[in-house]
Specification:
mainly alpha
Amino acid sequence: SPLVAVHGAMRRKGWRARNGTESGHIVTTVVSRDIRSAMRPVYDYRPYVLRSYFSTRLLMAVSDRILDNNYRVYWMGHSGQMAARYSSNKAILPPDLIESMRAAYQRSRRYLLGDTMNEESLRRKQMLDTARMLGYGEEKMRKLTEILERARTADEAAEEFRKLGEQPKPGNGSYEIVTGESVMLGRLSEGWTLERELNDDRFLVKRG
């Protein structure tokens, strides 16, 4: 592993010395033993649950369009598009792709660490959820995600996104964004239901 390896002074001792090898790799049984020892005082879990947790939590990041699923598959060590593409190049990834992976992992950390979302993060997620409900296509969802990633605040992202053009109509006509409390109340009186309150005195309502 590039993250965990045997100290140089230990590579000529123990079973390595007996077998005439100086491998720096740590065998699976030792890694498993040390993980169990660290977890055992609190949890009686098998080390494999960490891999399962990693996979499941990153799937949530993929679902929220925070992470490219090709990255998740590659990180899990599975054969996929990226593995097939770079296997002919001795699995050497280009520097720009490595940096893209680092940035993607940084964005996904809160899914792995279980960080509580602050107000700013909740507003960004709300924008993505609302856009999906309104029937935004893949291209506009991709643009919105890019804007959210580079914007300093959710307000800045919302302003930039408005400049992209007119909001698409909901695919099934069941959702609508209205401006002003009086308009929202009018919709409610017509049988609509309030889904959520947005920014700038706007409301997302759903046809009853």
